[in-house]
Amino acid sequence: MGVSLQGRTALVTGAATGIGRACALRLAEAGAVVWINHLGQAEAAAALVQAIAAAGGHAQAIEADVADAAAVQRMADRVGGVDVLVNNAGVILEKPFLETTEADWDRVLGVDLRAVFLVCRALLPGMLARGGGSVVNIASDLGLLGREGYAPYCAAKAGVIALTKSLAREFAPQRVRANAVAPGPVATAMVSLEHMSAEWVEKELAIPQHRLADPAEIADTVLFLASDLSRFYTGQVLGPNGGSAMP
């Protein structure tokens, strides 16, 4: 059975670069019309729209700060209903716990967890009106494992997993599936070995496959969860992580 999203509309947050970009490309390749959310990355978002169009797909960029409730609602009003929602936007912070400020905590939790709540709250009514759909939230293996020096990030991603399970239970009767993807280390600008501490690099490359993932490998999992191939999946956490976490 092939993977087809023909006739469906998707929104991917934080889609101008990295994992989000790879997800937008995969969804468009499968036939979905894709909204590419970004914040301050208009050039990269436009380039992605052009790349999708050149491949015969359809996409449109939309700028919004997903940690801002009013901005998210404006985005939802413009987009309308979607069949697939991928909450990917995120930030990461490497800092000792006792040096972590309230501003650090609020920033990471705001983008990595609060934004998932805001976007789901704004987009779910439209999804329900379309008769159901698929919500895919990008978490992290660190939400399962924890990691010293990453307390806000780990807390946020663990929260994303718990929120996903709650959504799955609440909206399953209305034909909305909610699942999470918990990647291991991925080769993106946000997770760059050259910008991380030696201790971080040693831990990340100690996983069984001993390499970083390509963003396309995460996008393949997202595409599966967005499609009918995963029609009996809800409340699940899939881990394209190279073996970093084996729950």
Automatic annotation (TrEMBL):
<dbReference type="GO" id="GO:0032787">
    <property type="term" value="P:monocarboxylic acid metabolic process"/>
</dbReference>
<comment type="similarity">
    <text>Belongs to the short-chain dehydrogenases/reductases (SDR) family.</text>
</comment>
<dbReference type="InterPro" id="IPR020904">
    <property type="entry name" value="Sc_DH/Rdtase_CS"/>
</dbReference>
<dbReference type="InterPro" id="IPR057326">
    <property type="entry name" value="KR_dom"/>
</dbReference>
<dbReference type="InterPro" id="IPR050259">
    <property type="entry name" value="SDR"/>
</dbReference>
<dbReference type="Pfam" id="PF13561">
    <property type="entry name" value="adh_short_C2"/>
</dbReference>
<dbReference type="InterPro" id="IPR002347">
    <property type="entry name" value="SDR_fam"/>
</dbReference>
<dbReference type="InterPro" id="IPR036291">
    <property type="entry name" value="NAD(P)-bd_dom_sf"/>
</dbReference>
<feature type="domain" description="Ketoreductase">
    <location>
        <begin position="8"/>
        <end position="199"/>
    </location>
</feature>
<protein>
    <submittedName>
        <fullName>SDR family oxidoreductase</fullName>
    </submittedName>
</protein>
